[in-house]
Amino acid sequence: MGGKHAMRGLDHPFHRAICSGRRACACRRRRYAVRGWRPGEHRDPRGLRVLLADDSDENRFLIREYLKDTGCTLDEVENGALAVQKFKEQRYDVVLMDSDMPVLDGYGATSRIRALEAERQSSAVPIFALTAHAFREAQDRSIEAGCTAHLTKPIKKSTLFKAIAEVVPTSVAREPVKVAVEDWLKPVVGGYLDSRRADARTLREALECGDYSAIRLLGHRMAGTGGGYGFGPITDIGNALEESALAGDSARMRASIDDLDRYLQTIQLE
After folding, report:
1. How far apart are the C-alpha atoms of 152 and 98, rounded to whole Å?
2. Are residues 123 and 97 in the same domain?
3. Are 125 and 212 in a shared domain?
4. 20 shares its domain with 131
5. What is the DSSP letter of 52?
6. Distances in Å between the alpha carbon of 234 and those of 99, 150, 215, 222, 231?
7. Considering just the CA atoms, what is the radius of gyration of the chain in Å?
8. Hey, which end of the chain has fewer CB within 10 Å, N or C?
9. What is the pLDDT of residues 71-87, one digit of tens each?
10. Which pLDDT score is estimated for 184?
11. What is the rounded CA–CA span in Å between residue 270 and residue 266?
12. How far apart are CA 76 and CA 97, in angstroms?
């Protein structure tokens, strides 16, 4: 390794060189390529929701410190099984997946996440394999499991940010949405937003179970309260959830839940 970082992404030139002439790998590239990739465009990962799966406290500390001033929301788990569970409950822009973990390793977790995306007919979320193994077999195994790129530890901050910038669509990176709240609402608005974050998790669970009645009810409640607390988009999203639940439109329901997640991640109170 010697401090060098190997990256093998599905649309990265290094990976293309390795995979030339391999039909199976070309198929995986078509399936897991992330829409919105722009060659040479490097930027800090602003306002993303990131899932980090790594059983090492020290490694999680480094990633946490790298992202602390970026406005990203970071969820941490210690094994692949918990990563899959988190992915079921929450929408993520990026997944950082250690390859060797207890209970379920990163390869197995990545395969299950890709299966979930196929079942939901949703676009592929970038998944970065994080591993101490730089040899070709490990890189190929990461791509075979469905990872977008393979990063070799120890990973520098600049290397991680560059890798994310190469695969995360520009439209995903978000700046904070500043919301002015009236003084009399300030003592309670934090709790209100926390309740909506809990609603987002409940909505995802209800969608997975096909409980459209629960989605309609939560949407109705959000529609009736969002604007009153100063958050007009929550009212709009609530209306969309209620309408799509009544119509049985699961794709629109999922999109509205994603919209709610994005909005809640980017709110900055003034």
Report:
1. 10
2. yes
3. no
4. yes
5. E
6. 38, 37, 14, 6, 6
7. 19
8. C
9. 788 999 999 999 999 99
10. 93
11. 13
12. 10
pLDDT of residue 73: 87
Listed as ranges, residues in the chain with pLDDT below 50 are 1-42, 171
Contact 35, 171 (CB under 8 A): no
Quote the pLDDT of residue 227. Answer: 93
At residue 66's C-alpha, the angle toward residues 61 and 68, to 5°, is 90
**Chain centre to alpha carbon of residue 2:** 30
- Whether 76 is covered by a domain: the verdict is yes
Distances in Å between the Cα of 121 and the Cα atoms of 73, 115, 192, 240 are 25, 10, 32, 20
Which pTM does this prediction carry?
0.62
Hey, what are 214's tokens? 């629960």
Q: Verify that 19 and 117 share a domain, yes or no.
A: yes
Range of 134's domain?
Answer: 13-167
- Looking at the structure, tell me whether residues 162 and 192 fall in a common domain: no
Same domain, yes or no, for 81 and 162? yes
* Closest CA relative to residue 105, chosen from 144, 143, 133, 78: 78
Residue 243 within any structural domain of the chain: yes
d(CA 92, CA 105): 19
